[in-house]
Amino acid sequence: MAIVDLETIPEVNLAFMDSDHREEGRLINALGEAVVALREGRGSPGDVQKRFAALDAHTHAHFAREEAAMERAGFPPYPVHKAEHDHVVAEMVYEGRWFAEHRDAERLWAYVSQAVPTWLVGHVESMDLVTARFLAARATRPRPATATRRVRLSRG
Ligand SMILES: [Fe+2]
Questions:
Q1: How many angstroms separate the CA atoms of 50 and 56, rounded?
Q2: How far apart are CA 30 and CA 67, in angstroms?
Q3: Which of 8, 80, 85, 94 sits at 20 to 30 Å (Cα–Cα) from 129?
Q4: CATH code of residue 76
Q5: Is 145 a domain residue?
Q6: What's the DSSP call for residue 6?
Q7: Domain for residue 144, yes or no?
Q8: 100: CA distance to ligand 1 center in Å?
């Protein structure tokens, strides 16, 4: 059974974010399958590491897209949201290194089957939802009228 049911990931109704969250879930499931195979003696550490690298790369890109959108929109709680991203990335890098050194499939299974999906759903339901609402409101707010009067420059 998949770790993350892609159909039940909460939607924030902003296409790029919903798409990133779905891909995050898909990559978590792919890594989980490789870890299960390794625990059952039919997988390989190399396959686990390859899938871990794919999840890690997507997570970096996914966070970068959200952060760029928040910065462009001037989202006031940006530092709080970014701090949570930084924490998740640091933990992911640490777990990847730990597995590379120790080949500890039990520890990685706990991380990928519990810690990461719990974080994903909690984060989407809180920070991402608030962020998406702000971004959507910014996108639909009318722009302030621009000045059309010409300014005559004095010469000398
Ligand atoms: Fe986020």
A1: 10
A2: 26
A3: 94
A4: 1.20.120.50
A5: no
A6: G
A7: no
A8: 27
Cα(8) to ligand 1 centroid in Å equals 17
Q: How far apart are CA 31 and CA 126, in angstroms?
A: 25
CA of 40 to the centre of ligand 1 (A): 34
Domain housing 84: 13-138
Residue 4 lies in a domain: no
List the chain pLDDT tens, one digit each, 156 residues: 899 999 999 999 999 999 999 999 999 999 999 999 999 999 999 999 999 999 999 999 999 999 999 999 999 999 999 999 999 999 999 999 999 999 999 999 999 999 999 999 999 999 999 999 999 998 876 655 555 555 555 555
pLDDT by residue (tens digit) across 5-29?
A: 999 999 999 999 999 999 999 999 9
Q: Residue 61 C-alpha to ligand 1 middle, in angstroms? A: 11
The C-alpha atoms of residue 22 and residue 9 are separated, in whole angstroms, by 7
DSSP strands (E only) in 13-148: none
* Rounded alpha-carbon distances, angstroms, from residue 42 to 28, 33, 55, 111, 134: 19, 11, 21, 20, 47
Q: Provide the 3-class DSSP secondary structure of residue 150.
A: coil
What domain count does the chain have?
1
Cα–Cα–Cα angle for 143, 66, 68, rounded to 5 degrees: 60
Q: Tell me if 31 is assigned to some domain.
A: yes
